[in-house]
Design goal:
two-stranded antiparallel sheet; 3 helices; about 110 residues; alpha/beta; single chain; about 20% strand
Length: about 110
Amino acid sequence: MFHRNKSNLEEARYVASLVVLAAQLMSSASQRSHEPPKTLSIGVIAPYARQVDVIRSSLTKALQHAGSQFPLDVEVSTVDSFQGREKDIIILSCTRYVLYFAFIFVS
């Protein structure tokens, strides 16, 4: 027997950490070049609305915790909602995972 899920908290946290890392890298590069920072646009695409919600929640927490001052434009949407948009960085969340449960009968 197996269980399929349309959200994956661990992956959402990983996606949020990638967004924070991108912001930190761009902030560092901007400081080294002594140029004003350009707004970094990041698109996060997930196939399921439930995963979009989980990523948004994780992203809000991660950005608050990191205290990022770098200008970001982050859009988290489903594949259908995102269609036709362009961003500097695209992150794809595959979301699904399968948990397998084994039943062993001993006679």
